[in-house]
Amino acid sequence: MTENTNVACPVCNKSVQMQDINAHLDNHYASPSKFREKQKPSRSVQDVLYGKTNTHSVSSPKVRKVDETLPSEQTPKRIKSIKKDVRPLAERVRPKTLDDYVGQESLVGKGGIIRNLIERDECPSMILWGNSGVGKTTLARIIAKTTGAHFLEVSATSASVSDCRKIFEESQNLLRLTGKKTIVFLDEVHRFNRAQQDIFLPMVEKGLITLIGATTENPSFRLNSALLSRCSVFTFNVLDKDNVLSILRRAMQIESERKERKLELDESILQHISAICDGDARVALNCLEIALGMLEGGSVSLPDLKKKFARSFSVYDSTGDAHYDTISAFHKSIRGSDVDAALYYLCRMLESGEDPLYVARRMVRIASEDVGLGDNSLLPLASAAFTATQQIGMPEADVVLAHCAAALALAPKNVDVYRAYKRVKSFVASDPEAGRAQIPMHLRNAPTKLMKELGYNKGYKYNPDYKDGRVKQDYLPKPMKDKRFFRIPMDLPVDPDLDADESSVTELQEERRTEKRNDN
């Protein structure tokens, strides 16, 4: 930027040459009364840089007229207080420091990776992945405040490409004028398509902005791989019951101090709220706000609160069953070949508003983990059910999911592959040498003459060249050539709780499997 470049005065908005800006500002502050008579509605430096118009400036004729009719000094404070009161409880009690932050101990607790970055005043571009209400937005704001960076919050549901470009231009201007970097918090980043995500690449790569994206969707599937490779991905866990209770108790304390009187709710109410919110702090605080509102009108009891919430929550919440408990019951019912229970839990999830793709993904896993080699046709079926659910959505996809669930429950089960792969993972994790063992020379690829001269691929026996494909040849590295993982004999016990009634259930399940095979 040259000295002859004109800039806008942050006070009066006049165009002034760069070398004269300081003298121009000094002149105005030396004659404040004269300046007040002529100035336009005042705008802060931030307003000038970010194109905001201060419609409530103290110099605005409209606002001055209102001021003349109200008590001069106390009115602004009272108006400010009223504005704060209308904010939701979740916003009023939002933590402002890491010490007040609850949950995600591995990230922001003592020694947590994000805490260490913040304490070193470092903030790389990052993606925060987790369910709603687990603290993604709160942490982004704490990062911005702690590092002293300029913070802009944008929602991918409403922002356009032109909006983003404008933000980039303003961020670069701010960086040149003040040296202050901008953190752009992009909420629901997965809602941007690939082209929209691409516009962030050069800005992030050059370090002109720090991007903090928040998403409830798996970033591996929903974000551009190029953008993902330039950001650190942090996974946020669902808040447990104790985390939610801590948040509720802190909110009660803050509200008591704000209202200058002690607010008291029975512990059973807080326990109930923490149980039905499904690890979502925002939902829990909204429930607490309802309870406190009822408290203003008199006493509040747990039965009254349950009636109030019964109209607001899904089957998951009103019965107190957690989201993961239901999907676990569904999975275990299929594993146990109980088709009736599997369909029941499927219905509970879908009618409660569960994401059908979440259920479909779990059934793809079940097809390999539990059915496995028992029926190889079930993996293509589960994959097809997932694709169909993506394409047609709910409510039409309910029968597709039920079809797949019933087929999985009725199929013969085989966990040989699942157990074998678990043994391999355990072996590699427990023995550092296992992951670095030398590949046998006769199994190595030899695309070049040099490799062949070094003995690569030497002595390899091509199985189809021998009768029945059988040859004597080692495939595992030499130190572990006798190691076995697949179908290791196991002395499995018989369930002592089985009786005649249980045997009849097993026979019924076998009859249904036979009927299925006959139908095919």
From TrEMBL:
GO cellular-component term (any): nucleus
Domain UBZ4-type: 6-29
GO molecular function: ATP binding; ATP hydrolysis activity; enzyme activator activity; G-quadruplex DNA binding; single-stranded DNA helicase activity; zinc ion binding
Region named Disordered: 493-520
Single GO BP term: DNA-templated DNA replication
This protein's record includes keyword Transmembrane: no
Record domain AAA+ ATPase: where: 122-239
Xref: SUPFAM superfamilies: P-loop containing nucleoside triphosphate hydrolases, post-AAA+ oligomerization domain-like
Keywords: ATP-binding, DNA damage, DNA repair, DNA replication, Metal-binding, Nucleotide-binding, Zinc, Zinc-finger
Pfam families: AAA (PF00004), AAA_assoc_2 (PF16193), MgsA_C (PF12002)
InterPro entries xrefs: AAA+_ATPase, AAA_assoc_2, AAA_ATPase_RarA/MGS1/WRNIP1, ATPase_AAA_core, DNA_pol3_clamp-load_cplx_C, MgsA_C, P-loop_NTPase, Rad18_UBZ4
Biased composition (Basic and acidic residues): 509-520
Compositional bias (Acidic residues): 494-504
PANTHER family the record matches: ATPASE WRNIP1, WERNER HELICASE-INTERACTING PROTEIN 1 FAMILY MEMBER
Entry's family note: Belongs to the AAA ATPase family. RarA/MGS1/WRNIP1 subfamily.
This protein's name: DNA replication ATPase
Organism this protein belongs to: Schizosaccharomyces japonicus (strain yFS275 / FY16936)
Gene label: mgs1
